[in-house]
Write a sequence for this structure.
């Protein structure tokens, strides 16, 4: 993103601590393909929970535009960890994925508070769980429709029009 766009987007973060956290998250992002889904993960250790973590995750999600983003915040006081997740995919149901971690929320925005576990352990557990549980992504081949029949090259304009075609197909039968 250009510096002007980034500056405009970051203005909504309320204080310097959020901006610093945003930069830490950008630098720790890991890009993974899990069962065909392009997922971004980051793990940040903090002394204790701070206000506005979900807003920072939302901003990172808005800028990076991944299929799914999972941010794990490990808090030394406790110990405990917070998972904040966002997705743009209808096939990645975050509320269901975070249930085993004690979380919930919406299909495209969810979180979970995991007590008694540090961030590094929760991050590893989350990746293993996603690898085992995340449904395979739909492939392009599965989305493509198969024609019910190919039109011969000599098909006239009236026949093409009746099938909703404006131009002649370039494929003929062997």
């Amino acid at each position: 993103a250009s510096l002007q766009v980034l500056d405009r987007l970051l203005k909504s973060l309320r204080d310097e601590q959020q901006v610093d956290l945003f930069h830490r998250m950008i630098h720790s992002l890991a890009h993974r393909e899990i069962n065909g889904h392009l997922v971004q993960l980051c793990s940040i250790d903090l002394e204790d929970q701070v206000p506005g973590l979900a807003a920072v995750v939302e901003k990172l999600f808005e800028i990076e535009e991944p299929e799914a983003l999972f941010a794990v915040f490990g808090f030394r006081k406790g110990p405990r960890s917070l998972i904040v997740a966002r997705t743009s995919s209808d096939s990645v149901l975050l509320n269901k994925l975070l249930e085993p971690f004690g979380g919930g929320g919406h299909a495209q925005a969810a979180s979970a508070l995991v007590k008694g576990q540090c961030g590094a352990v929760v991050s590893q557990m989350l990746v293993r769980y996603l690898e085992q549980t995340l449904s395979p992504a739909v492939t392009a081949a599965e989305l493509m429709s198969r024609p019910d029949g190919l039109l011969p090259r000599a098909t006239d304009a009236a026949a093409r029009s009746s099938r909703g075609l404006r131009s002649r197909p370039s494929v003929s039968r062997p």
